[in-house]
Structure formats: C-alpha cells, structure tokens
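Morning F.,

Quick status update on the modeling queue. The single chain you submitted on Monday has been processed. Sequence for confirmation:
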Amino acid sequence: MKKEIKNSQLNWLEFALKILIKKGPDSLKITPLCELKGVTKGSFYHHFKNRSEFINALMIHWYQKMTLDFITQANTKASPLDRLKKLDQVIASHNIEAEMHIRAWALKEQSIAAHLEKIDKQRQDYLANCYIELGMEKIQAQDIALIAYANFLGMQQIHPKPSMETVLRVSAMASKAFMPKLNE
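Structure tokens below.
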C-alpha cells in the first residue's frame, strides 16, 4: 500500500514540480527524473505512456492546482472586490515559484507555451469579469486585467525578489488606480 501511494501519478506530478523549481526543466526528462526519485523507468511508464503525456499531465495538474483551485477559493466570496482580495490571499499562501520556471521553459518548448496561453487567458478573464462586476466597461476591464496580470508576473522577475506581500500590494495598487469607485 505504501509503495502505491509513493509512486502514484499525483506523487509523480508533485515531485516533478519540486524538481522543476530546484533543477529546472532539463531534469524533467525520464532518466534524470527517475534517478532523482530513486525508481526505475518502469515506475514512470506505469503511470505515463511517454514524456509528452507526462508533461501534458504535469501542466494540467499545475493549471488545476494554481489556477482553477485558486479561482474556486476566491469564488467563496460574494462581491467581486472580496473575490479579488481572497484571490490575493490565496496566492500569498501558496508557493508559486514554479510559475517562473514554467514561463522560462515555455520559451524553449512550444507545448508549454500552448498551456500557458490557456492559463493566462483564464486568469485574465477572471480578473476582467471581477472588474466588469465592479462597473467597468468590458474593454477597460480587459485592459486593466492585462495590466494587473502583467504587473504581477513581471514583479516576480525582479532581483532581489520582492516579497509576495509587496507584489500583491503593488499589483492591487496599480489596478485600483483605474477604479475610481474604489478610490472614493
């Protein structure tokens, strides 16, 4: 029973995210990954047909965990402003370091970029919908969502890295500058 849990598909995906953060995407090839996990390639192939299927599963898992689950938690609040605040709290309470590594990886691997397209659209649409509920016109809401999201992602690239609290505070400040009703 313990061995089944240790080598479950979910365990592989969580392990891969940790390795991605520590060692980068080149370590997510089958042989290095199995060596780091201390298992045979047979264990890998028991859960995944090939590396392509594994990478696809990894990106779907990351999307579920870091986008859909975050949105679900934010949606526990009724008002759009409270949802945005809750989203910030959820982001701040999670390790989002894989984000930076996945984005760098997407520069080299088109399949990763394709996943990011879907993820980025979903995240921006969520923000825009909150802004629309706050009274913005659709185009303005989409523009503000783009600004807020790009600001959030860009701030993660700064060295020395600002704290997550700083990133979220500055991102929110930039968004609020375009929302006169919130500044009254």
